[in-house]
Amino acid sequence: MTSLAFGFDFRDLYFAERLPRLDARFIEWLREIDPSLAMRLIDTRTTPSSLDRKSESELLIALAPHLEDFIARLFGIEKEVEALAARHHELAPLYSCKRLFVQRRAMNKVSLEQAAAVDGPSLATQLAQEFGEAFSELTFARHVTDWLKDEAAHERQLQLALHYAAWAVLTPAGKQCHKRGVLFKAPAKLDPLHLVPLVEERTQNIVTYRLHHLRRREGFALTDPGTDLVGALDQTNYCILCHEQGRDSCSHGLREKSGAFKKSPFGVTLAGCPLEERISEFHKLKSEGVAVGALAMIAVDNPLCAATGHRICNDCMKSCIYQKQEPVNIPQAETRTLRDVLELPWGFEIYGLLTRWNPLNLRRPYPLPASGRRVLIVGMGPAGFTLAHHLMNDGHSVVGIDGLKIEPLPAEVSGVNGTGKHVSFAPIRDVEQLYERLDERSMAGFGGVAEYGITVRWDKNFLKLIRLLLERRNRFSLIGGVRFGGTVPLEEAFALGFDHVALAMGAGRPTVLDLPNGLARGVRTASDFLMALQL
Question: pTM for this structure?
Answer without folding.
Answer: 0.94
